[in-house]
Amino acid sequence: MAVDGGPGHDIRGAMHDPRVFDAAGELVDRTGLDDDDVDQVVRLMQSLRGWHDAARRMSEASSRYMKLNETDMRALRFLIAARNQGEIATPGALSDYLGISSASTTKLLDRLERGGHIVRAPHPSDRRALAITVTDETRAVARESVGRLHARRFAVAAALSPEEREVVIRFLDALSATEGDGGHEAAHEAAND
């Protein structure tokens, strides 16, 4: 891996290489890893970054295509999933899913209704609640954009062997678990010292 600043300098790769960002070994334990192992881990992290970048671009493209923001898109995916499962979606369930206030949910639903994406109706069994459904037109458009994208992603995962999928699942679950490892708190404490 080129990290010397010369013609082959790879800044993106260096961002993931502990030999560059943690040369003194204060943060990353490289015990038992030789340079080939570290190179492979760096390639793995670069591939993960590539996936994040591609997922962001695909999400942005879908949002632009449907002329909606990311929260609106997440709301529609939730509403479509609820409909596909025969569940009645309510503003409260949507608010919980999105992690936003009821006031923000109301604004979001107003925006989606004005755009012709959803319909609000009285809940069939709870007089205090509303039932929210996606219009057939929006559902069809989402199926053609987001649905086809998910189908391609599913095909990639399905092409792996069951053992390979288990390795990927364990890796991604372990990576997700690092969120709660106190990194943000430690950074915050260091910044305030």
Task: Provide tags for this entry.
two-stranded antiparallel ribbon; 9 helices; elongated; disordered N terminus; 66% helix; 5% strand; single chain; 193 residues; 2 strands; mainly alpha
**Secondary structure: number of strands:** 2
* Distance between the amino and carboxyl termini: 35 Å
Low-confidence segments, given as residue ranges, are: 1-7, 183-193
Side by side, the strands of the main sheet go: 1-2
What's the helix-strand series?
A: HHHHHHEEHHH
Q: What order do the helices and strands come in, and which of them pair?
A:
Elements: H1 11-16, H2 18-21, H3 35-66, H4 70-84, H5 91-98, H6 102-114, E1 118-122, E2 130-134, H7 136-158, H8 162-177, H9 183-192
Antiparallel strand pairs: 1-2
Helix pairs in contact: 3-7, 5-6
Description:
Helix content is 66%, strand content 5%. The chain is built from nine helices and two strands. A two-stranded antiparallel sheet has the order 1-2.
In summary, what is this structure?
The protein is mostly helical and 193 residues long. It is built from nine helices and two strands; from the N terminus they run H-H-H-H-H-H-E-E-H-H-H. The model is unreliable at 1-7 and 183-193 (pLDDT under 50).
